[in-house]
Amino acid sequence: MNAQGQPETAGPIPSPHPPGEIERSEERRAGVSRGRDESVPVRPKALVIYLMCGPETPELAQVAVEGGADLVELGFPFSDPLADGPVVRRAAERALAQGMRTDACLQCLAAVRDRLPDTPLVPMTYSSLLEAHGWEQFAADALAAGATSLIVADLPAGDHPDVRRVQLVAPTSTDERLTLAAAHSDGWLYLVTVTGTTGTREELSPALAGLVERARAATELPLYAGFGISTPDHAHAAAELVDGVVVGSRALEVAEDGPAALAGYVASLRQALDAT
């Protein structure tokens, strides 16, 4: 606990690319490996696993990290998730049916933090939830519950700059928009590999290489790729270009078969990344 009675954000992180903190910090901007325990060997590529908040999520998050995840995104369900494909939409509908409104999701986040004191945890949601809860209040409550940063999928870079968050860019983003997003992004830049919604694909998007090239020219931040990455082969191919990968839809599908299945799936992704 810190002097304000809030839980501290993540401490030693076994990844070279942790995000920063929600609160402003020159240290955050100066180096994304802030606070890393130098005695812990780093992994060459970061693995991010997305899970929807729900009663089973704390256990699933724990086994994901044990399987090799470096960071966990926690979906706060929304009734009209524009960026999400059918798998995430179904997971959101199921979570809402279980009563996972904002306060319950914050409690879920706190429960995950209790199990994973040293792992970056990043809630991902939509601006309507922050609008309803109060922008500053949501950021403060998420931090108090253990969030390391935020992702607000439909909030353009430059809007509400007081809410520190990881920014998303896509192949359709202009160079001007990409530069703006990079300047405001918290710790790393999220590269959306496809034009469209989340979901599994047969092959890695060919648009990723061009997006990476433009992003490298705009920022020195680590680049993580997500949307459409579902297999170890996808993860390996993406990691040849970027610093980390985000896996969501397929992780949700596998998690339906229980913690052991998720642990095995995450371990297969970890092995693929470590072979890069």
Overall 3D shape: globular
Low-confidence stretches: 1-16, 23-39
**CATH topology-level name:** TIM Barrel
Q: Give the CATH architecture.
A: Alpha-Beta Barrel
Concise account of the structure shown:
This protein has 276 residues and is an alpha/beta fold. It has 11 helices and 8 strands.
Characterization of the model:
The chain has 276 residues and is of the alpha/beta class. Helices cover 41% and strands 14% of the residues. The chain has 11 helices and 8 strands. Strands 4-3-2-1-8-7-6-5 form an 8-stranded parallel beta sheet. Helix 8 links the parallel strand 6 (185-192) and strand 7 (223-226). Helix 4 (102-115) runs parallel beside helix 6. The longest helix is centred in the last third of the chain and has 16 residues, at 259-274. The protein is globular and about 40 Å long. The chain starts with 25 loop residues before the first helix and ends with a helix. Mean pLDDT is 85; it is low at 1-16 and 23-39.
Summarize the helices and strands and which ones pair or pack.
Elements: H1 26-30, E1 46-52, H2 57-67, E2 71-75, H3 86-97, H4 102-115, E3 121-125, H5 127-133, H6 135-145, E4 151-152, E5 165-169, H7 175-184, E6 185-192, H8 207-218, E7 223-226, H9 232-239, E8 244-247, H10 249-255, H11 259-274
Parallel strand pairs: 1-2, 1-8, 2-3, 3-4, 5-6, 6-7, 7-8
Main features:
TIM Barrel; disordered N terminus; 8-stranded parallel sheet; 41% helix; globular; single chain; alpha/beta
